[in-house]
Amino acid sequence: VFIAQSRASGSHRDVEDEELTRIFVMIPKTYTEEDLREKFKMYGDIEYCSIIKNKTTGESKGLGYVRYLKPSQAARAIEECDRSYRAILAEPKNKSSESFEHDYYSNNMRQDLRGNMLPFCMQPEFCSFEKTETRIQEPVSKRLSVVSRLPFIQEQLFALFDLVPGLEYCDVQRDPHTNSGYAVIQYSTAASAIYAKYKLHGFEYPPGNRLTVIFLEDGNDSSE
């Protein structure tokens, strides 16, 4: 692929710096910058590697950047590296990196969950959960409450919970006095709600922000 530039875009090197030489990858959280460099140095000369970390805990978010000296090297890395790295060209530095990281993570997370959503009876982990965990005297219903430290975006939360079959509605509610997120989710069956709670309670969305998912009374007999 040959990438042309506008005459008004400045020097060729400026365009390369911002758009064509930096790639964004999903990596194991145990990776160090040296591990990242070792995995990607075969594709070209690396200028730097960096790992995105949680600002509070200092732990890796499982995401990183690799900057090459030439666009052709970055392109080769994207084409030839293992698919598990989900390598793409990074957004220019003058754009919001946090929103880019969030969109990248949420898109890939939805793909992973979609690939993992087999019929309930085919998943051993769900069958064993159904036999053991439901013995706990917790009121089960088709309706769930979702709480987060960060505010929700309606479309993104709907897309996340819609991965479990039977979603009837997703109602995101905002508290004008706090910055937290709250939503009510309802499924057509209690089985779907149980599975959604099992899969998504404690799930980090976006990275570093754990969802709290609990059952809400829906007016039906929970003994069913």
UniProtKB/TrEMBL annotation:
Pfam families: RRM_1 (PF00076)
InterPro entries noted in UniProt: Nucleotide-bd_a/b_plait_sf, RBD_domain_sf, RBM45_RRM2, RBM45_RRM3, RRM_dom
Domain RRM: 21-95
UniProt entry keywords in alphabetical sequence: Repeat, RNA-binding
Gene3D superfamilies with a match to the protein in the record: 3.30.70.330
UniProt keyword RNA-binding present: yes
CDD domains on file: RRM2_RBM45, RRM3_RBM45
Sample GO molecular function, one term: RNA binding
Domain of life: Eukaryota
Signal peptide segment: none
SMART domains named among the record's database cross-references: RRM
Coiled coil: none
Entry annotated with the keyword RNA-binding: yes
Protein name: RBM45 protein
Organism the protein comes from: Machaerirhynchus nigripectus
Gene assigned in the entry: Rbm45
